[in-house]
Amino acid sequence: MVKGHHNVNYIVPLGIGLAVLLGVPPFARGKVRVPLETVQVVPRIWPREADVLRVVSRHIRRVPRCLADFGEWSLHSYRKGRVLAEIRPEGDVSESVMRAFAEFFAATASIPVDELPARPEGWPEDGDSDGFLHWLVDFTEERVHQAHRDRFGSLFDSVLIPDNAMATFRKAHGGLTPRPFRLLHTDVHRSNVVVRRGRLTVIDWELAMYGDPLHDLATHLVRMRYGKRAQERMTDLWGEAMVRAGHGVLTAGLDDLAVYLAFEHAQSVFPDVMRAALSVPEEPEADDFRRAAARIRAAIRTAREPLQLIEVPDERRVIEALREWHARNISSSSPG
Hints:
Blueprint: E1 2-3, E2 7-13, H1 16-22, E3 29-35, H2 49-59, E4 66-69, E5 74-77, E6 82-83, H3 84-87, H4 95-109, H5 129-145, H6 149-158, H7 165-172, E7 182-184, E8 193-196, E9 199-202, E10 209-211, H8 213-223, H9 228-244, H10 257-267, H11 269-278, H12 286-307, H13 315-328
Antiparallel strand pairs: 1-2, 2-3, 3-5, 4-5, 6-8, 7-10, 8-9
């Protein structure tokens, strides 16, 4: 069993009869994916990952296939290998791995848009990069920040995250270069990449969406925790791969990447603060509060510039805020 933020995965052997019925080799293993009931803190525009995988697997060979969808759970093909997070949990990755990532993004951009599931009503029009960014900002403000203020508002206030933080960000960013929209994975990081014989398989497509490709690159750069030089190199390789694949138009206005990077740092402060607070056990010790406070201060430090925060609160203030919040809100639930 492997548990993530959004699903519990059970790796199971498939009997001969079932394997033949599903069109996979006998004695193959499958992955049963059971969605977790969590608080939504990241956008999810398509409710069924299976609908996305049916399209993606027709065009990209090394992705899991959805073998059967039973509504409340689904059965996927199992990709053998080691998760990149086990091989290289920290630090920059090799040039060959970055090139493989770049080719993956180019292949994803090549998937025909007309095959994708229907977008939600009111979705930004193709090429409306400003509208797409503002949709992301509004989601963070309405569905993450404001939706959880009843429970976490006092904690946000105590650690100096103002109520108008995302509104300030929205006003400060606009005028993006229009770029054609494509399918985006939006969550390509070390724990979602399986490596076998030098080849990468990107898994976990439940957060896929349709939008500006620079957003996909930005989430990758931030969640991989690349150093500055590696970020620059990965960006160069991404652009080169797009041009080779005939998608040079997607690289227009590459300076806009800085805006999407700023958004990633800005939006993450809310789920990071909530997760840190909920990580404190029901019967905490002093070290539990210190560890949670360190996570919160790190998140605020990262978000300080894009959200124009006045300061990063000191450890004592954050620990005191956590103790007060914990005394009123002991719970075992966690945001996704």
